[in-house]
Amino acid sequence: MSWPWRLAGWALFVLAGPALLALAGQVPFLTSGRLVFLAITALAAVGLCLIMGFAGQVSLGHAAFYAVGAYASGILTAGYGVPPIVALLAGMVLAGAAAAGVARAVFRVSGHFLAMATLAFGLILYYSLGHFRTVTGGNAGRGGIPKLAIGSWEATTDTRMFLLCWALVVLGVLVARNVVDSRTGRALRATGASEVAAGCCGVNVVRAKVGVFVLGALYAAVAGSLYAHYVTYIAPEEFGLLKSIQFLVVATVGGLTSVWGGPVGAVVLVLLTEASREAIPLFVEGATGPYELTIYGLVLVVVLLLFNRGIAGGIAHAWRARGRGGGGDPEPLAEDATGRPVPREVAP
Amino acid sequence: MAELLQSLVTGLTLGAMYAMVGVGFVLIYNVTGIINFAQGEYLMLGAMTAVTLVAAGVGLPLAFLAAVGVAAAVGGVVERVAIRPARGASIETLILITIGVSITLNGVALLVWGVNPRRYGPFTAGPPVELAGAALSRQSVWVFAFTALVAGALWWFLERTTSGKAMRACAMNPEAAMLQGISSSRMSLYAFLLATGIAGATGMVLVPITSASYNMGLPLALRGFTAAVIGGLVSPLGAIAGGLLLGVAEASAARFVSSGLKDAIAFAVLFAVLVLRPQGLLRLRLASRV
User: Fold this and answer.
1) What architecture is the B11-119+135-276 domain classified under in CATH?
2) Of B96, B106, B110, which has the smallest distance from its Cβ to A304's Cβ?
3) Which residues of chain A are within 8 Å of residue B100 when distances are taken between CB atoms?
4) Whole-prediction pTM value?
């Protein structure tokens, strides 16, 4: 894309935050509180897009790193009086270290096994959170977490918190964009096309994959910290398999191969689920429980079967196809239904 | 000693359930190469159907048939509508689709049946059977009988019938099977019908032990998958052995380590097997690919 278009795209993205906030007062089912969750989900999903779209690793355990961020923030601030911003950074360090360890272990396997290994890791952490009460507060959770404060500025209102979160989403996408366009990013895309060929060209495949997995985990950790400071209470329930799946659906629906996938997916799915939360009880009397999950599942299946690049990926592709893409992304090789380049050889 | 035996009995009951779920994973994986993440939801559909019918006064045998029928019918429709159109897509896409199917079925069940767990009593009423100091509930006996029956029937189907042999051929070498005139698309449908039907039946038999609720499927599916992985993921017999092993390990962990950690331990087993020995723990001579 030429630079005026690119600038316009970024301006649109930055302004989407305040626009959503303005919308929150008007649309009945959208509150500024829901928007904070939207931004947090978007941030975690940007990280997952990096892991899945660029390193090509299905992760069913993204919520684990989200949990590490949240619990680091919660325990350090509520238990030891550490300033929130320091706790947030500590959460990132911890999550990064955990991700590096997990990645080294699970990248020995591929395909289904990799997805299931990340899932197992997420579940081990989830059940441990409920078990080790003295540290985590157990299933009852841990409260008394202060609101996020940077110096004397405190995110006391939903509006402030949302604007901060949105700024972090913009920053996160910017970082992701730069990583994807960097030498590492090109190495990763080459890896996605053919691990053997990339290896032959001198790409350290394992290091590239581990690196992007760690980076993706950092996004989740920040999102987790934001969650802990916004809700001021954390319990294992928020960090279970359903959360991992929610991130996965948001990232996939948004578009795994686009750095915009996270925010786009989050906006679409949050609006859809909030609307369906209002609409479903009109059709099904006495509906209770997390029934909006139905929408998540349906949207995921439909998007995968019909718009196989996700929403942001589809728009980006259509845009390139119009011939305006001078100097933009290099055209990928053959693509599969998720829009990822098709590996040349099938994993054993 | 009695304590050890008790945890063994409890573990084997749990394990028999995991084994049945694991067999479903193996059947579908062998023929289609897909890990059917939604496997647990068919178990839930079977259990919920049976509970609803029994509450309406229908007899247990009929409820059993209905549970199998509903689960298999939904499984067949899902295979045609969601899985088949994506044939040729990457492994990742197929995993994501089955996850989507799983959440959808879960959500629909929630809308239809609500959040409250339901149940009916054991198939035969009466006190637990005494077994050298360990108590074995009557429903556990039913579960064992059911597991043995399914294992036997499955063996007979795969080894002795033309369809079963075709299915095994398809698992061994899809191209060669196709050249012999075996439709891999039809075999994929059969595998789904068989696996989801078994899941529905399992759900129906489990109701007196676990009770039925819209979210019962996922935890069982995860353990069934672990069972299948322990058995090497390609052998039904391996999955059954893996399930029994996992059940006993979990019950022993609950009794001798900590009941709060038994879930974490079960998934630590899964993680360790996947990372260290993805070809499975059990290398039974019989545990060949279907």
Assistant:
1) Orthogonal Bundle (1.10)
2) B96
3) 249, 296-301, 304
4) 0.85
